[in-house]
Q: What sequence folds into this?
């Protein structure tokens, strides 16, 4: 009786692995990035099962794969550039040895800003253009 329950739990775990959870925060109350761009904050967490700790098996929670998916999400938001402010990888090789040495749960988090079209109307740019006009006179 316990074996089918364990098998069902393992199958469910494998079916739910390899997913990405993405959250966005686009409301900056009208504030702009330091260079005048509009920004959307994106936080992405990927979960996957890797084979022998390093090889993606079900999903890809490597940093390379998480950054690739993060930039795809940023493009969907209309971003021209990104600024990654934080990333973290958690490898749970120790959770259920020796099984987890072969099938290793892994989580990767990438957070950053998707910088939208550059707006050349920041106060600094206005002051620079006024200064250039005064120099020209």
A:
């Amino acid at each position: 009786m316990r074996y089918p329950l364990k098998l069902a739990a393992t199958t469910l775990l494998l079916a739910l692995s390899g997913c990405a959870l993405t959250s966005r925060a686009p409301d900056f109350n009208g504030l702009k990035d330091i260079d005048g761009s509009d920004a959307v904050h994106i936080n992405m967490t990927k979960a996957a099962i890797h084979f022998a700790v390093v090889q993606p098996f079900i999903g890809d929670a490597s940093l390379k794969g998480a950054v690739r998916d993060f930039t795809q999400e940023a493009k969907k938001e209309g971003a021209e550039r990104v600024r990654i402010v934080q990333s973290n990888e958690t490898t749970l090789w120790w959770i259920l040895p020796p099984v987890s040495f072969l099938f290793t749960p892994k989580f990767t988090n990438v957070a950053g800003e998707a910088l939208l079209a550059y707006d050349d109307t920041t106060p600094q740019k206005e002051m620079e253009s006024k200064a250039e006009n005064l120099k020209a006179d």
About this structure: The CA atoms of residues 30 and 38 lie 8 Å apart. The chain has one domain: 18-136. Residues 18-136 form one domain.
